[in-house]
C-alpha cells in the first residue's frame, strides 16, 4: 500500500525560488493552517502536479511559478519533489521541474517551460532513476501510488476551485464518474468484441459463399481437365499427319529445284543464240552505215594509228593553251572586281567627308554669330547679384523669427501663470467646501434627531424585556420533548417489526428480481416481434407465432435452398455451355482472323510483284518470260543496231537519203531524220539493255517465287467463306446462350435474395421463441415464490416496512427540527436584546461627538472666509493673465505671417535668378561645344578629304587599263576554240576508218560462233522441262492445301487447349487447396465467434455487477457520513443515482446527486445552499476515497469549512474524527487537512493523532514559509 512521507517546494507561486520549503506527512493525520493568501492551497496544487502532471486551473502561461518580475530575476526555476512509498513497499521520489523566463523588451511577457523531471527508487541505499520523461512520469506515478489518474485528480488531491464538481452539470459529472470508474476501458473492450463479432459474422457469410463457389469451381475444373486431355491427344494425332505432309512437300520442292537447275543449259544455249544473232545484225547495220558515209583511206593500220595519236597530241596542246587563256581572263575579271569594290568604298567615303565639310561650314558661321551676342563675365556677375539679394532676405527673416520666438515665450509664460492660479483657486474652493461640510455636520438639528432615536431604542428595550415570548417558547419546548419521546418508542417498534420480517427478505428479493427480469424480457420480446413480425408476414404469408415460427421458417428455408441448388446447377450448366460457345466463337473468329491475315500476307506478297487479279498470274508469267527473251535478244543485237544507226546518220548527213530505202530527203526532213536517229542512239545504251535483261530476269524470278503465295491465296479465299459462315453460326449460338444465362442468373439472384432475407430472420425468430419460453418459465417461478411467501402469513413486504420506518424517522426528524427551531428562536431573542443594548451605546457616543463639534463651529467660519478671499484674488490674477495671453497671441500671429511672406519673397527671387543663370550657362556650353567640333575637323578630317580624292582618281585609271587587257584575252580565246574544233573533225574521220576495219573483223567472228551453237536440241529440252515442271507444281499445290487444312484444325484444337489451360491457371488455379483452405477458415471463424459471444456476455455481467456493488458501497458510506455530519432537519439523506442508458452504441451510465425530503427524491443541483454544496462534495469525495483508494489511503481536504455554519463545521470535524478512529490502524491512511480555521482543527482532536501541526505564513520578503509547531500551541491560540 502507498503513502506520502515528504514534500519539498521551491519557486512555486509565493514560495521562494532560492529556498526549499519542506513538509513531512504523518499518519493518520497531517494538519496545515495559515491565513488567507499565505500559500496553503499551493500544497494541494503541488501534490496534484507531482502525481498527475496537471497544472492547477487558470494557471497556464506560467502563473504556477513565482513571477520573475516579483523575484527581480530574469529566470525563475521551480521544483517540486515528492517522496512516497509505492504499492509494493518501495521508497520512491518524483521530481518535477519548471522554468519561467522574462522576455527582454516585452513588458509582461513571460516564457514558461516544463523541464524534464525524474522518477527514482531507493533500493538498498542506492538511488536509481527509472525515468526522466514527463509523459512517462504522468503514466507511471499513479501506477506506483495504486490509484488511477482520475481518482488522484478529482478525489484525493482535488483543487479548491474544483471541489464542488459532484454538483456540477450532468455532462461534467458523467465524464468524471466515468473516469473514476474507468468505464471507457471496459466499454471499449465490449465495443471491440462486438465489432469483432460483427465483422466475423460478415466474414463467415462471405466465407460460406466462398466455400460454395469453390466447390462449384472444383467440379468445373475437373470437367475442363478431362476436355483438356482429349484435345491434347487429338492435337498430337494431327501433328503427326502434318509432319508427313511437310516431308512430302519438301521432297517435291527439292525435285522441282533440281529440275530447274538441270535444265538451265538449254536456256543458256537459246539465250546465247539470240544474243549472237542480234549482235550480228547490229554489227552488220553499223558496218553498212560506215561504209556509206566513210571517206576511206588506204593507209596501213599502224600508220593510221600514228596519225590519230599525232592529231590527239596537237589537240591537247591547243586545249591547254585555251585553258591558260581562260585562266588569264578569270584573273583579269577578279582584279576588275577588286578595283570596282575599292572604287565603291572610296565613293561612299567621299560622300561622308562631303557631309562633314558642309557641317564644318555651318558650325563656323554659328560660332561667329554666338560670339557677337554673348558677353564674357555676364554669368559671374549675375550669380554675385543673386547671392547679395538672398543674403539680405535671410537677414530680414532671421530678425522676424527672433521677434516671433520672443512673443511665443511670453505667451507660454502667461499661460503657465494662468494654469498655476487656476489650480490654486480650485484648491481654495475645495478647502472651503470641506470646512462648510464640517460646519454642517455640527448642526443642532442633527443633535436633536440623534437624541430622539436614542429614546426610541430605549423604548424597544423596555418592551422586549417583559419575557412573555420566552415563557411561550419554553412551554412549546416541553410539549415537543414529550412528542419526541413517543415517536422514538414507535420508531423502535417499527425497527423490531422490520427485523422479524427479514427472514422472508430473500424470497421477496428473488420475486422482485424475477418480476424485473420478466418485465425486461417481455419488453425486449415485444420489441423484437414488432421489428421482425412484418417482414416474417411478408415473406411467409402468415403472422409470426412464437411456437410455430421456427419450424415454418426452417421449412421455407429448406424449400428455397433446394430451389437455389437447382437454379445454381442450371445456371452452372448454362454457364458451361456459354463458355464452350464463347470458346468456339473466339476460336472461329481467331481462325477467321488468322486466315484473313494469311490471305492478306499472301495477297500482299503477290501484289508486291503482280499487278492485277490472281487469275492473271499465268499470263503474267508468260509475258515476263517473253519480255526476258526480248531483252536478251536486244542486248545480243545492240552493237549491230548501234552501228547501223550511226551509219544511217552519216549517210543522211552526206547524201540526204535514207539508208534502208535510199529515198532522197529535203533539208528539213534530213534534219528531223538525223535528230530522231541521234535521240535513239542516246537513249539506247549497252548498260540500259543489260539493266533491262536484269530487270526482266528479276521479274521472272519474282513471279516464280510467288507461285506458292498464289496457290495459298486461292485456297484461302475458298476457306474464308466457310470460316465466316462458321463464325456467324457460333456468334448466334453464343448470343442465344447469353440470353438464357441472364434469365437463369436473374432467377438465381431472386431466390438467393429471398433465402438471404429468410436466413436473416433465423436468429431473431429463434430469439423470439426462446424468449417466449423463458417468459413462461419466469411467470411460473413468480407464481411459485408468491405461494411460498403466502405461507409466512405476512402480506407486507420488507421494502414496505422499510418505507414505513422511513416515514416514522421523518416524523421524528420533524419534531427534532421543531425543538431545534424553538431553541434557535429563544437564542435569537437573547441575541436581539444584546444587539439593542449595543445600538443604544453607539447612539450615546455619537451624541457626545456632536455636542463637542458644535463648540468648534466659530473657528471654522473664520477659516472659510479666509479661503473665499484668497479665491477671489486668484480669479482676478487669472483674468489679468488671460488678457496678456490674448495680446501675445495676436502678436505671434502677425509675426508668423510676416516671416512666411519674407520666405515666399526670397523663394521667388531665387527661382527667377536661377532661370537667367541657367540660360546663360546653356549659351556658354554651346560655344565651347562648337569650338571643339571645328577644331576636331581642322585637325583630322581636312587632310582625309584630299587623300580620298587622290585615291579615287588612281582607281579609275587602273579600271580602264584592266578593261583593255580583258578584251585582248577574249580575242585569243576565240581563235584557240576554232583550232580545237578542226582537230576534233580530223580525229573523228580517223576513228571511223579504224571502227570500219574492226566491224568487218567482228562480223566474221560472230558467224563462226553462231555456226557452233546446237539450237534444235535446246528447243526440245525446253518443251520437256515445261511438262515436268507443271506436274510438280500441281502435286505441291495439292499437298500444300491438305497441309494447311490440317494446320488449321490443329491450331483450333491448340487454341482450345490454351483456353482450357488459361482457365485452369486463372479461374481454377489451386482450386482444391483453396476449397480446403476456405472450409477450414469457415470452421475456425465459427468457433471463434461463439467464444467471443460467451466472453462478451460474461464480461458484460461482470461489469454490471462491479458497478452496482461499487455504487451500493458508495451510497452506504455516504448515508453513514451524512447522518453523522449534517445537523439540519431539511434533508434526510443524500445518494448518488446511477441511471443506465442502453443506446444503440452500447450501455452508458448517467449520474446525479439526489437528496431525500420526507420520502421525496429531489436533485440537489440548484436546490441547496452553499454550505450544503460544500458538505455534500466533501462527503462524496470521502466515500469515493473509501471505495477506490484501498491501495492509496490518502485524501487531502482544502478549506473544508468554506460556507459551513459552526454547528455543521463541528459535525464535519466529528465525522472526520470518527473516520480517523476507524482507519487509524491502516498503515497507509493519511488525512491531510488544510484550513485557516484553527478552531475547526481543534474539534478534530488532533492531539490524539499527531504531535505537531504546520503553519504557513509570509516572511519579511513576502515569501511563503512552512513552520512545524507543537500541537498544544494551536490549542492555546
UniProtKB/TrEMBL annotation:
Chain ranges of the Rad50/SbcC-type AAA domain? 6-251
Question: Which residues fall in a coiled-coil region?
Answer: 235-269, 397-438, 578-627, 713-795, 833-1042
| Lineage of producing organism | Eukaryota, Fungi, Dikarya, Ascomycota, Saccharomycotina
Cofactors that this protein relies on: Zn(2+)
Keywords carried by this UniProt record: ATP-binding, Chromosome, Coiled coil, DNA damage, DNA repair, DNA-binding, Hydrolase, Magnesium, Meiosis, Metal-binding, Nucleotide-binding, Nucleus, Zinc
| The keyword Phosphoprotein is assigned to this record | no
Name listed for the protein in its UniProt record: DNA repair protein RAD50
Pfam family name, one:
AAA_23
Q: Mind telling me which GO cellular component terms the entry cites? A: condensed nuclear chromosome; Mre11 complex
Region ranges (Disordered) = 452-474, 509-529
Instruction: Name the reaction it catalyses.
Output: ATP + H2O = ADP + phosphate + H(+)
Where found in the cell? Answer: Chromosome; Nucleus
**Listed PANTHER family:** DNA REPAIR PROTEIN RAD50, RAD50
Could you give a single Gene Ontology term from the biological process aspect?
Answer: telomere maintenance via recombination
Q: Which family does the UniProt entry place this protein in? A: Belongs to the SMC family. RAD50 subfamily.
Q: A Gene Ontology molecular-function term? A: ATP binding
Amino acid at each position: 500500500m502507498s503513502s506520502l512521507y515528504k514534500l519539498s517546494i521551491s519557486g512555486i507561486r509565493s514560495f521562494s525560488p532560492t529556498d526549499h520549503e519542506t513538509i513531512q506527512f504523518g499518519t493518520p493525520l497531517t494538519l496545515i493552517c495559515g491565513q488567507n493568501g499565505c500559500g496553503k492551497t499551493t500544497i494541494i496544487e503541488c501534490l496534484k502536479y507531482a502525481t498527475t502532471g496537471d497544472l492547477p486551473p487558470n494557471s497556464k502561461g506560467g502563473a504556477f511559478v513565482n513571477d520573475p518580475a516579483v523575484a527581480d530575476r530574469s529566470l525563475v526555476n521551480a521544483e517540486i519533489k515528492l517522496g512516497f512509498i509505492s504499492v509494493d513497499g518501495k521508497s520512491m521520489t518524483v521530481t518535477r521541474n519548471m522554468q519561467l523566463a522574462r522576455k527582454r523588451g516585452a513588458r509582461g511577457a513571460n516564457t514558461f517551460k516544463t523541464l524534464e523531471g525524474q522518477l527514482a527508487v531507493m533500493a538498498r541505499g542506492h538511488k536509481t532513476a527509472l525515468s526522466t520523461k514527463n509523459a512517462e512520469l504522468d503514466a507511471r506515478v499513479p501506477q506506483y501510488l495504486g490509484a488511477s489518474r482520475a481518482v488522484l485528480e478529482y478525489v484525493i488531491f482535488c483543487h479548491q476551485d474544483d471541489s464542488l464538481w459532484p454538483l456540477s452539470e450532468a455532462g461534467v459529472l458523467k465524464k468524471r464518474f466515468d473516469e473514476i470508474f474507468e468505464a471507457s476501458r471496459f466499454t471499449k473492450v465490449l465495443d471491440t468484441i462486438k465489432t469483432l463479432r460483427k465483422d466475423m459474422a460478415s466474414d463467415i457469410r462471405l466465407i460460406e459463399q466462398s466455400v460454395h463457389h469453390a466447390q462449384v469451381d472444383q467440379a468445373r475444373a475437373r470437367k475442363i481437365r478431362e476436355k483438356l486431355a482429349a484435345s491434347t491427344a487429338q492435337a498430337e494425332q494431327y501433328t503427326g499427319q502434318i509432319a508427313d505432309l511437310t516431308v512430302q512437300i519438301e521432297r517435291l520442292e527439292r525435285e522441282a529445284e533440281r529440275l530447274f537447275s538441270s535444265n538451265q543449259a538449254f536456256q543458256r544455249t537459246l539465250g546465247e543464240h539470240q544474243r549472237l544473232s542480234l549482235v550480228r545484225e547490229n554489227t552488220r547495220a553499223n558496218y553498212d552505215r560506215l561504209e556509206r558515209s566513210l571517206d576511206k583511206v588506204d593507209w596501213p593500220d599502224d600508220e593510221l594509228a600514228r596519225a590519230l595519236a599525232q592529231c590527239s597530241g596537237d589537240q591537247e596542246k591547243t586545249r591547254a593553251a585555251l585553258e591558260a587563256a581562260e585562266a588569264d581572263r578569270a584573273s583579269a575579271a577578279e582584279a576588275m572586281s577588286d578595283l570596282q569594290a575599292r572604287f565603291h568604298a572610296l565613293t561612299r567615303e567621299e560622300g561622308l567627308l562631303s557631309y562633314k565639310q558642309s557641317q564644318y561650314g555651318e558650325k563656323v558661321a554659328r560660332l561667329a554669330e554666338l560670339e557677337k551676342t554673348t558677353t564674357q563675365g555676364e554669368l559671374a556677375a549675375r550669380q554675385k547679384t543673386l547671392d547679395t539679394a538672398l543674403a539680405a532676405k535671410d537677414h530680414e527673416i532671421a530678425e522676424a523669427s527672433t521677434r516671433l520666438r520672443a512673443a511665443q515665450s511670453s505667451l507660454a509664460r502667461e499661460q503657465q501663470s494662468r494654469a498655476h492660479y487656476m489650480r490654486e483657486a480650485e484648491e481654495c474652493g475645495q478647502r472651503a467646501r470641506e470646512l462648510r461640510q464640517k460646519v454642517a455636520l455640527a448642526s443642532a438639528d442633527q443633535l436633536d434627531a440623534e437624541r430622539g432615536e436614542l429614546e426610541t431604542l430605549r423604548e424597544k428595550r423596555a418592551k422586549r424585556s417583559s419575557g412573555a415570548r420566552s415563557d411561550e417558547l419554553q412551554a412549546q419546548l416541553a410539549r415537543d420533548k414529550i412528542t419526541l419521546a413517543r415517536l422514538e418508542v414507535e420508531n423502535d417498534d417499527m425497527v423490531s417489526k422490520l427485523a422479524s420480517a427479514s427472514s422472508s427478505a430473500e424470497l421477496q428479493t428473488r420475486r422482485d428480481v424475477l418480476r424485473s427480469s420478466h418485465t425486461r424480457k417481455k419488453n425486449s420480446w415485444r420489441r423484437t416481434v414488432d421489428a421482425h413480425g412484418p417482414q416474417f408476414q411478408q415473406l411467409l404469408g402468415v403472422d409470426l407465432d412464437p411456437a410455430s415460427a421456427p419450424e415454418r421458417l426452417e421449412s421455407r428455408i429448406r424449400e428455397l435452398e433446394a430451389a437455389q441448388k437447382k437454379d445454381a446447377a442450371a445456371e452452372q450448366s448454362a454457364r458451361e455451355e456459354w463458355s464452350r460457345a464463347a470458346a468456339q466463337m473466339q476460336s472461329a473468329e481467331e481462325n477467321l482472323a488468322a486466315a484473313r491475315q494469311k490471305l492478306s500476307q499472301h495477297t500482299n506478297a503477290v501484289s508486291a510483284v503482280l499487278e492485277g487479279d490472281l487469275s492473271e498470274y499465268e499470263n503474267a508469267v508468260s509475258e515476263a518470260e517473253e519480255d526476258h527473251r526480248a531483252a536478251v535478244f536486244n542486248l545480243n543485237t545492240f552493237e549491230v543496231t548501234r552501228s547501223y544507226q550511226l551509219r544511217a546518220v552519216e549517210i543522211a548527213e552526206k547524201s540526204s537519203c535514207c539508208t534502208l530505202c535510199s529515198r532522197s530527203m529535203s533539208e528539213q526532213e534530213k534534219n528531223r531524220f538525223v535528230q530522231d536517229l541521234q535521240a535513239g542512239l542516246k537513249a539506247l545504251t549497252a548498260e540500259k539493255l543489260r539493266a533491262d535483261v536484269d530487270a526482266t530476269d528479276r521479274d521472272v524470278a519474282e513471279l516464280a517465287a510467288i507461285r506458292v503465295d498464289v496457290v495459298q491465296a486461292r485456297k484461302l479465299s475458298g476457306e474464308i467463306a466457310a470460316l465466316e459462315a462458321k463464325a456467324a453460326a457460333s456468334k448466334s449460338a453464343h448470343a442465344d446462350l447469353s440470353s438464357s444465362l441472364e434469365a437463369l442468373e436473374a432467377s438465381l439472384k431472386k431466390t438467393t435474395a429471398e433465402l438471404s432475407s429468410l436466413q436473416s430472420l433465423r436468429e431473431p425468430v429463434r430469439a423470439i421463441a426462446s424468449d417466449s419460453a423463458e417468459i413462461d418459465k419466469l411467470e411460473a417461478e413468480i407464481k411459485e415464490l408468491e405461494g411460498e411467501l403466502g405461507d409466512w402469513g405476512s402480506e407486507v413486504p420488507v421494502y414496505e416496512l422499510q418505507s414505513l420506518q422511513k416515514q416514522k424517522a421523518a416524523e421524528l426528524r420533524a419534531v427534532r427540527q421543531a425543538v431545534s427551531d424553538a431553541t434557535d428562536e429563544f437564542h435569537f431573542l437573547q441575541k436581539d436584546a444584546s444587539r439593542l443594548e449595543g445600538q443604544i451605546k453607539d447612539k450615546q457616543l455619537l451624541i457626545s461627538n456632536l455636542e463637542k463639534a458644535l463648540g468648534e463651529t466659530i473657528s471654522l467660519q473664520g477659516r472659510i472666509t479666509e479661503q473665499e478671499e484668497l479665491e477671489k484674488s486668484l480669479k482676478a490674477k487669472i483674468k489679468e493673465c488671460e488678457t496678456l495671453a490674448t495680446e501675445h497671441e495676436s502678436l505671434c500671429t502677425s509675426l508668423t505671417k510676416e516671416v512666411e511672406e519674407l520666405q515666399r519673397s526670397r523663394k521667388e527671387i531665387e527661382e527667377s535668378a536661377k532661370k537667367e543663370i541657367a540660360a546663360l550657362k546653356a549659351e556658354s556650353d554651346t560655344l565651347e561645344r562648337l569650338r571643339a567640333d571645328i577644331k576636331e575637323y581642322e585637325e583630322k578630317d581636312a587632310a582625309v578629304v584630299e587623300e580620298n580624292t587622290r585615291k579615287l582618281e588612281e582607281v579609275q585609271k587602273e579600271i580602264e587599263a584592266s578593261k583593255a587587257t580583258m578584251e585582248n584575252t577574249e580575242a585569243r580565246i576565240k581563235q584557240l576554240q576554232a583550232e580545237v574544233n578542226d582537230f576534233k573533225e580530223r580525229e573523228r574521220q580517223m576513228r571511223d576508218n579504224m571502227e570500219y576495219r574492226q566491224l568487218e573483223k567482228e562480223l566474221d567472228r560472230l558467224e563462226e560462233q553462231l555456226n557452233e551453237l546446237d539450237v534444235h536440241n535446246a528447243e526440245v529440252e525446253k518443251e520437256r522441262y515445261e511438262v515436268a515442271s507443271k506436274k510438280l507444281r500441281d502435286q505441291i499445290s495439292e499437298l500444300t492445301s491438305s497441309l494447311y487444312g490440317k494446320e488449321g484444325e490443329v491450331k483450333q484444337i491448340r487454341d482450345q487447349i490454351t483456353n482450357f489451360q488459361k482457365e485452369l491457371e486463372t479461374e481454377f488455379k489451386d482450386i482444391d487447396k483453396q476449397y480446403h483452405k476456405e472450409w477450414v477458415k469457415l470452421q475456425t471463424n465459427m468457433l471463434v465467434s461463439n467464444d467471443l459471444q460467451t466472453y462478451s456476455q460474461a464480461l458484460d455481467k461482470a461489469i454490471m455487477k462491479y458497478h452496482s456493488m461499487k455504487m451500493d458501497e458508495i451510497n452506504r458510506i455516504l448515508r453513514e457520513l451524512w447522518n453523522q455530519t449534517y445537523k439540519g432537519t431539511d434533508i434526510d439523506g443524500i445518494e448518488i443515482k446511477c441511471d443506465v442508458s442502453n443506446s444503440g452504441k452500447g450501455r452508458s451510465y448517467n449520474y446525479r446527486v439526489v437528496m431525500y425530503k420526507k420520502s421525496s427524491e429531489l436533485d440537489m443541483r440548484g436546490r441547496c445552499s452553499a454550505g450544503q454544496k460544500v458538505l455534500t462534495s466533501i462527503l462524496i469525495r470521502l466515500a469515493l476515497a473509501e471505495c477506490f483508494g484501498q491501495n492509496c489511503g490518502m485524501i487531502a481536504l482544502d478549506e473544508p469549512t468554506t460556507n459551513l455554519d459552526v454547528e455543521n463545521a463541528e459535525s464535519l470535524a466529528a465525522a472526520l474524527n470518527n473516520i480517523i478512529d476507524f482507519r487509524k490502524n491502516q498503515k497507509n491512511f493519511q488525512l491531510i487537512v488544510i484550513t485557516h480555521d484553527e478552531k475547526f482543527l481543534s474539534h478534530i482532536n488532533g492531539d490524539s493523532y499527531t504531535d505537531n501541526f504546520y503553519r504557513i505564513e509570509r516572511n519579511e520578503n513576502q515569501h511563503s514559509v512552512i513552520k512545524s509547531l507543537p500541537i498544544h500551541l494551536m490549542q492555546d491560540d
